[in-house]
Structures are given as C-alpha cells and as structure tokens.
C-alpha cells in the first residue's frame, strides 16, 4: 500500500470534519468577530447525543437496518445541537455583546467547561464505542490507498453540505441578511434586518454542522469521549484561521489542508527527523500551522480582512 | 469604635497586624481544618504568584495569554531535572531557581517574538497553542532520548534545603514542631511578598506606565516614543519569570512533576483568578487567586451535603466542582465583568464603554 496515498485519503477525511467544524467558527466570527470557544463542545455533544440514541435504538430494535439507526441518531443530534447553539448564544454571548472583548471569551471558556462536565456527568469518563458494525464495512482500493465506505460517505456528505451552505449564504434571503449583518450590523438593522435573529440563525446553522461533524468523527474513529471537543475545536479553529477567518471558502480549504498536513506530517515526521520525533507529535501540527499563519499572513490564505484591531 | 476606624491612617499598625496574622495563619488552619488545608493554603500562595505574573501580561500590558502554564511547566521541569535522581543531579536551590526563572523568561521571549503583531483573540489562541505544544513535547520527550520521562513524570525531586535545613521534613524551630507544608508556607509567603513588592514598584514605574499605554492604545504608545516591541517582550519575559519561579517552588514542594499538571485548564484557572479578582489590581488578583484555589476545595464538601440531604452521594463532588466552576465563570462575567475589585483605571474604562 502506498503510504502517501493512504495518508492523503485519511487527511482528506479528517480534513472534512475539521472543515465542517471550522465553518461554524467562521460563520460566527464573520458576523460577531467572536471566537465561539464552546463550538468544539457542541461537536462533542452532537457525537454523544447521537451515540446515546444509537445505543438506545439498537437495544430496542436490533433488527432495524444499521444505517437507519445511525441516521436516527444523527437526526436527533442535529436539532439537539441547534437548540444548544441557540441557548449558548442567548445565555453567554448576547448579554455581553457590547462588553469589553475579554468578557465573552471568558464566558465562552466557562460554557465549554460546563458542557464538558455535563457530558462527563451524563456519559461518564470512559470512551464510548461507536457500534461500527451498524455501518457498511466495505473497503475499496483507490490509487493504492484503502478507503472505507464510511470515509466515502463522509467525503460525499461534506461536499453536499458545503454546497448547500454556499447556496444558503449566497442565494437565500437569510443568507443575504447574514452577509449584510457581517458587513455593518447597524446599517443592516436600519434596512429592516432582524439582527438578533440573524445572529441566532448563524449559531444554529453552525451547531447543526458541528453535530454532523461530531457524528462523522466518531463513526470514523469508532469512539467518542467527553473531552474530544476541545482538541477538535482548537484544530478546526486553526483551520478557519488558516483559510482566512470569516471566509466560508477559506474554512473549507483550511480544514481540508490542515487534515492533509496533519496526516502527512504524522506519516513522515519519523523519517524527516531521523526517528527523533514520532507520530505522537501529530497534534502539534495544527498549532504550528496556526502560529505560522498568524505570524506570516494573519489574514489567512483566502482572507482579505485586516487582523489589526484591538 | 470599629476596628477599621482605629486602623485608618496607621499603615504600620495595619501591616504589623497583617504580618502577625499571616504568620499565625498556618497554626490556626492546621488546628481547625487539618493538615490537608495547610497544603491547600500553600498552593493558594503559589497561585497568587502565578496570577500576579500573568497579571503583568494580561492585566497591565493587555496581552491575553492562554498558555501561561507553559512557563510554570518550564520552571517546574527545570527544577525537576536539576534536583532529582533522574539525571543524578542535585544542585542547590539558589542555583536552580534563577536558572528556572531565566529559562522561563527565555521561553517568554520565544513566545513573545512571533506574536508581537497579534492582539486580542488571535493572541489568545496562539498562546494557547504554544502552551499545548510545550505540554505535548514534555509528554513525548522520553524517547529516543529520555529527557522528561514522558507521561510518568519525574519523581523523588529534592525538597528545598537552605544551608542544610531541609524544608522537606518536620523540623524543630524555637521549640515548635513545624511540618514540611508549614515550613514551605513561610518560604512561599516570603516569595509572594517579593513578587507583590516587585509588582507594586513596576505598576508606577516608567515600564508599568508604558505597559498600560500599550494596553490602551498601542499606536498612540508608539507615537509617544515607547519602544512597543521591547516593552511587550519585557512583559512576556517578566510574567514568564514569575511563572518559572512558581514552577520551581511547585516541583520542590510537590516532590514530583508530570505533564498532567500543566494542561490548558490550569492556564484557564490562572486567568480566571485575574478576571474574577479584578484585572490589573494587585489586591484583586490576590483575592481572586485565593478564591479560585479555595472554593473548589471547599466544594468537595458538597459530598457530605448530598449525603445529609439525600442520604446518598449522587454526584462525585470532584466532578461537580469543575461544573460549578464553569458556571461561576459565566455568571461572573454576566454580572460583574470587571471583577470583584476592579483597578481604578479599568473601572473608568468600563464606565466609558457603557456610555
């Protein structure tokens, strides 16, 4: 098997997940210039809720087709996360919209601690296994790499969702309101846009994407954990910054690119450093990329906005 | 007449009473709450040092640093490597402490240099990434050359020993039997006093005012002739020095260090001490540090409460305290975003913002 092709495939799959989560960051940042720190936890919640539903349903009706059970989990997790995203905005961010910039960042951190611990109290500290047997187990050979059915589904679903999101933002009334709010909230309000509703909608859309990403990542790796949202969120944020935060295409590109960088980096770091550093350093790539981008080109690959603001 | 009125205008008397109180505190705590609380108070003192160090970076210079724990880790590991059987070294503390603080300061500059252009949220995320990188390296630098002993950490670290007087065991002093945490308490108290003194002097110095100027408006500060690059790096280095110092003390006090002690949560804890107490205000930061250290410990007793009310323990109190901590963080920001004891300047700013 070709390591390069294999890592490329793995990276693209991982990158799709990053991209979906990164879209949530970028949507919110584009409108509010706020890092929704609790977004990673929304992803985790999506994954956990879906797993709980899948587990329960499998216990009640084990004869149902596996794919249907997983779909049911996803369909419960999405609205649950949308509600969560809405509540987070209402509780933690809206009251602080005109407060000093540090304040919403701290509440966001507080919210993510709360969500993590709520998840831990409900589902415990152990890893929860995703019943992967429910999903098709096929493997295919593409250019010397092995790709599973689940991975293909993740890639296809991601592309579909991205296309849908782009249409939503560019072609619908809500999308136009979102773009207007991002450009100038006060003017948008004068033009009859209900800014608060647009902001809520943004959080809800981001949360829905996060829920899907959460289910994808647990289906791909076969497990979920109450702490998984933290690192995932951080990497997705790095991806959003890499692509240019506030820019939808940037988040998608950044996510895919970061996934590939990480997978290739983990695959080759051993050879590159003569065995000194191993694949257990995989997690530092996201941060290195983040630091490099922010120092060399703070606006990201596709971003045009200036970062220079207090 | 009430006590406060008697003390008004008598700074020496107040200071004297405070000193006597602080010296007697460990005896009272040990007698009333037990030995474990003495250790908690020692940790509170360590956190005061850390919080005051971070306060220089965040409170004075306005540079939001979410990776502060990295410097704490660097200081702790410096101590652990230079005074433990791991490398067979056992250098005296007056060599290690400056080395640890200096290495931490170097890391501060290392972090500061690439982030000079960043502000606000971006800086927060990059510093957070920096902290994680340091932790990942500490966690993995056990192969192929074993430097940090990986996730197991380094054990049997030597306690501080001053001229043959070891703080690591119970000692007889002036006819009193003092346990190791008790002895460390006085050392830490001394260090806190030193850090507070340095901070107070810095606050009203040329450098302190330059930091505040940068926080308020970097461009205006540069226009006024402040070398913003050096002053910002100095803030990072200064904060890191205090972090490294506390790290060293932590390693010797604890006797072992492992990467687990230096995760992001720790950085957030230290930041929340400053935010809770009141950014940029020394007294506020001290109060915040004490509250954030002591309250989660006190929440351990919620187990007894659950037992008393429901007849059984529903939720492990250790799990509950982080949840309550997160809620407190959110509520605090919603209700009192400037902290319990905001600095005078901050209060003015917030009033302006609201207007």
From TrEMBL, chain A:
Protein family per UniProt: Belongs to the binding-protein-dependent transport system permease family. LivHM subfamily.
Annotated InterPro entries:
ABC_transp_permease, BCAA_transport_permease
* Name of protein: Branched-chain amino acid ABC transporter permease
Task: Report the membrane topology from the UniProt record.
Answer: Multi-pass membrane protein
- Keyword Translocase listed: no
Q: Which PANTHER family did the record assign? A: BRANCHED-CHAIN AMINO ACID TRANSPORT SYSTEM PERMEASE PROTEIN LIVH, HIGH-AFFINITY BRANCHED-CHAIN AMINO ACID TRANSPORT SYSTEM PERMEASE PROTEIN LIVH
Question: Which organism is this entry from?
Answer: Thiothrix lacustris
Q: Which residues cross the membrane?
A: 12-32, 44-61, 67-88, 100-123, 143-169, 198-218, 224-242, 249-269, 284-303
| Pfam families on file | BPD_transp_2 (PF02653)
Q: Where in the cell is it found?
A: Cell inner membrane
Q: Which terms are listed as keywords in the entry?
A: Amino-acid transport, Cell inner membrane, Cell membrane, Membrane, Transmembrane, Transmembrane helix, Transport
């Amino acid at each position: 098997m070709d390591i390069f092709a294999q890592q490329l495939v793995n990276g693209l799959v991982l990158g799709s997940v990053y991209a979906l989560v990164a879209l949530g960051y970028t949507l919110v940042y584009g409108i509010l210039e706020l890092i929704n720190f609790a977004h990673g936890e929304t992803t985790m919640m999506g994954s956990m809720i879906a797993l709980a539903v899948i587990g329960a349903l499998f216990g009640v009706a084990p004869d149902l087709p596996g794919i249907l059970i997983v779909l049911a989990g996803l369909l419960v997790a999405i609205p649950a996360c949308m509600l969560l995203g809405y509540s987070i905005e209402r509780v933690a961010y809206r009251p602080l919209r005109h407060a000093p910039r540090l304040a919403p960042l701290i509440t966001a951190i507080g919210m993510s601690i709360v969500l993590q611990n709520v998840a831990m109290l409900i589902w415990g500290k152990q890893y929860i296994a995703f019943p992967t047997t429910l999903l098709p187990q096929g493997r295919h050979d593409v250019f010397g790499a092995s790709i599973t059915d689940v991975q293909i589904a993740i890639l296809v679903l991601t592309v579909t969702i991205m296309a849908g999101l782009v249409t939503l933002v560019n072609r619908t009334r809500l999308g136009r309101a979102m773009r207007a709010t991002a450009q100038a909230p006060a003017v948008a309000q004068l033009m009859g846009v209900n800014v608060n509703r647009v902001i809520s909608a943004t959080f809800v859309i981001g949360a829905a994407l996060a829920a899907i990403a959460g289910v994808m990542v647990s289906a791909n790796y076969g497990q979920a954990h109450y702490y998984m949202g933290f690192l995932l969120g951080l990497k997705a944020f790095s991806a959003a910054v890499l692509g240019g935060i506030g820019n939808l295409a940037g988040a998608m590109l950044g996510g895919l690119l970061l996934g590939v960088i990480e997978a290739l980096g983990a695959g080759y770091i051993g050879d590159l450093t003569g065995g000194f550093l191993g694949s257990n350093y995989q997690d530092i790539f996201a941060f290195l990329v983040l630091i490099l981008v922010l120092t060399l080109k703070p606006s990201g690959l596709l971003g045009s906005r200036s970062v220079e603001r207090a | 007449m009430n006590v406060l009125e008697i003390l008004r205008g008598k700074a020496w008397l107040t200071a004297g009473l405070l000193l006597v109180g602080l010296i007697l505190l460990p005896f009272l705590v040990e007698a009333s709450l037990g030995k474990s609380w003495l250790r908690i108070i020692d940790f509170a003192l360590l956190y005061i040092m850390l919080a005051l160090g971070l306060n220089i970076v965040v409170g004075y210079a306005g540079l939001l640093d979410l990776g502060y724990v990295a410097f704490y880790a660097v200081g702790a590991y410096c101590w652990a490597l230079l005074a433990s059987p791991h490398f067979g070294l056992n250098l005296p503390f007056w060599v290690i402490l400056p080395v640890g603080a200096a290495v931490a300061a170097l890391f501060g500059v290392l972090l500061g240099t690439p982030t000079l252009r960043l502000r606000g949220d971006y800086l927060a995320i990059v510093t957070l990434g920096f902290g994680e990188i340091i932790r990942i390296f500490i966690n993995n630098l056990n192969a192929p050359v074993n430097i940090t002993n990986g996730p197991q950490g380094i054990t049997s670290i030597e306690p501080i020993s001053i001229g043959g007087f070891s703080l690591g065991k119970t000692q007889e002093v002036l006819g009193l039997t003092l346990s190791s945490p008790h002895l460390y308490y006085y050392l830490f108290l001394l260090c806190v006093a030193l850090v507070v003194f340095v901070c107070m002097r810095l606050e009203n110095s040329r450098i302190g005012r330059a930091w505040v100027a940068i926080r308020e408006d970097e461009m205006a500060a540069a226009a006024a002739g402040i070398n913003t690059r050096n002053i910002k790096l100095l803030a990072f280095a200064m904060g890191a020095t205090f972090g490294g110092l506390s790290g060293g003390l932590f390693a010797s006090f604890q006797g072992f260090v492992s990467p687990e002690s230096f995760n992001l949560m720790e950085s957030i804890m230290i930041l929340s001490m400053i935010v809770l107490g009141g950014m940029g205000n020394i007294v506020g930061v001290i109060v915040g540090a004490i509250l954030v250290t002591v309250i989660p410990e006190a929440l351990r007793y919620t187990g007894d409460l659950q037992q008393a009310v429901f007849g059984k323990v529903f939720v492990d109190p250790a799990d509950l305290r982080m949840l309550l901590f997160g809620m407190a963080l959110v509520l605090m920001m919603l209700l009192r975003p400037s902290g319990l004891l905001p600095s005078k300047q901050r209060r003015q700013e917030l009033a302006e913002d609201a207007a």
